[in-house]
Write a structure and sequence with these properties.
Blueprint lengths: L5 H12 L8 H16 L1 E5 L8 H9 L5 E3 L2 H6 L15 H4 L9 H4 L6 E5 L7 H7 L4 E4 H4 L6 H4 L20 H13 L3 H16 L2 H10 L17 E5 L5 H9 L6 E5 L3 H12 L3 H4 L2 E4 L2 E2 L4 E6 L6 E3 L6 E5 L1 H4 L6 E4 L5 H7 L1 H7 L2 E5 L6 H12 L4 E6 L7 E6 L4
Parallel strand pairs: 1-2, 1-3, 3-4, 5-6, 5-12, 6-7, 8-11, 12-13
Antiparallel strand pairs: 9-10, 9-11, 13-15, 14-15
Helix pairs in contact: 10-19, 11-12
């Protein structure tokens, strides 16, 4: 196996070394040196009180030689109703008994927000689906966390994926030992990606899997354009039949209408959640008559066959399972539920992407629509889903982009031609 790209060869060698439990690799070392260097020039603030805070300052000093500037209690924003972190998903997963167990001298909200460009954030939390995103969007670019630099403190339940509300997800695995078949698929996909930007993003996302360092995800985000409708990749036609799998509140429909200048043939939007579907339907109902008459919201999830599941969790992190809950959800195979030949399918369906693709397999193979599929909900989706699409459509072009500062929002575009 000859690999011309020296950076990728080093990455592949590192993946093979994990089979011998070599986790103190070059990317881990670079992450630590980057953190230490940043803390020399910027103030290090621990975000969140309680539980680990009693030992974190001493641990950071002894392990990395860095001193903390202060501690900020972000939960106070939630409780006061004032601040950029109010209403974040993270609060739902917070164990307040642990959080309030230990508090230190706190810095004020004014001081915390005074100079984000010269601040390094350390998240004192086991789960954090939304806080890093809000921080990044408000100028905090250097963000670290427990899994990244202090995983030894995490409770066993985190590794066993027993955290309430997140059980269905397998976004990343700390100290994963990559198997030879996994590495073979990674090397194969690297050589199939269409452009240099895709290859750079793919390498960065693999490095993230090795380090949990947001440096790589933020780098990938800065390389990418507009999610799903990136003009560098996607060219829309006036007769598009757009299938929106994961319609949420109508946000993707709004983006599609803007990208297409309102010119299209038809839109189908699947959304299984009761509250989201209500908002989606209201959004569609307020559109001009000539637009809304060409849109069908469908209250269902997407799957490889028509079936019934149950909603687990809520909001952006909701997913489906066979475990009975209060909210019963119907799912449908795309090819069985629409009356048009799809020309563009978008999928963000919370771990069900592969099932949904199987439900659209006949249309995908026969009609070769443009595809924009999220590949971050499961650990191996990053390479498994693109390779599956290439198997189904051998002449398609694969582009990879990433749209968030965290590990979420990685998308593979499969385009039969330069569309």
């Amino acid at each position: 196996m000859k690999i011309k790209d020296g950076d990728f060869k080093e990455l592949v060698d590192t993946l093979f070394a994990t089979q011998e439990s070599e986790f103190n690799h070059i990317y881990e070392q670079e992450k630590i040196e980057r953190f230490k260097t940043l803390c020399k020039d910027k103030k290090l603030i621990i975000l969140g009180t309680g539980y680990y805070l009693k030992v974190l300052p001493k641990f950071l000093k002894l392990t990395y030689g860095v001193d903390i500037y202060g501690v900020y209690d972000w939960v106070a924003e939630e409780q006061s109703g004032e601040g950029i972190l109010v209403g974040s998903e993270d609060y739902k997963y917070l164990d307040l008994k642990k959080y309030n167990k230990f508090k230190a001298n706190l810095i004020s909200k004014e001081e915390f927000y005074s100079d984000p460009a010269n601040t390094v954030i350390f998240l004192n939390s086991e789960t954090f689906p939304e806080v890093p995103v809000r921080l990044y969007e408000n100028g905090f670019k250097d963000i670290y966390h427990m899994r990244c630099l202090a995983s030894g403190f995490l409770t066993r339940e985190i590794f066993d994926k027993k955290t309430t509300g997140l059980e269905m997800y397998d976004i990343n695995e700390i100290n994963h030992s990559f198997t030879t078949p996994e590495i073979a698929r990674i090397v194969t996909l690297y050589n199939l990606l269409e452009d240099e930007k895709s290859r750079e993003i793919f390498k960065a996302m693999i490095k993230f899997k090795l380090t949990e360092d947001y440096y790589y995800t933020a780098y990938s985000r800065e390389l990418s354009g507009e999610q799903y409708f990136d003009k560098e990749i996607i060219s829309l036609k006036d007769d598009e039949v757009f299938v929106d799998c994961g319609g949420y509140n109508g946000d993707t429909i709004a983006e599609f209408l803007e990208a297409s200048n309102g010119k299209f043939k038809y839109i189908y939007s699947y959304e299984p959640d009761d509250e989201n579907f209500k908002i989606l339907s209201e959004f569609v109902s307020k559109l001009p008559q000539e637009i809304k008459e060409k849109i069908t919201p469908i209250k269902a999830g997407v799957h490889h066959e028509n079936a019934t599941f149950y909603m687990q969790g809520e909001g952006l992190g909701a997913t489906l399972s066979a475990e009975i809950s209060e909210q019963k959800i119907d799912v449908a195979a795309i090819s069985d539920a629409i009356n048009h030949i799809p020309t563009f399918i978008k999928m963000d369906v919370q771990t069900f992407e592969t099932y949904a693709l199987l439900g659209a397999m006949d249309d995908i193979i026969s009609h070769k629509p443009k595809l924009a599929v999220c590949i971050y909900h499961k650990f191996s989706d990053l390479w498994d889903i693109p390779l599956l699409l290439k198997l189904w459509i051998p002449d398609c072009e694969l582009f990879m982009r990433h749209y968030e500062c965290t590990q979420e929002e990685t998308v593979i575009y499969a385009l039969p031609e330069a569309k």
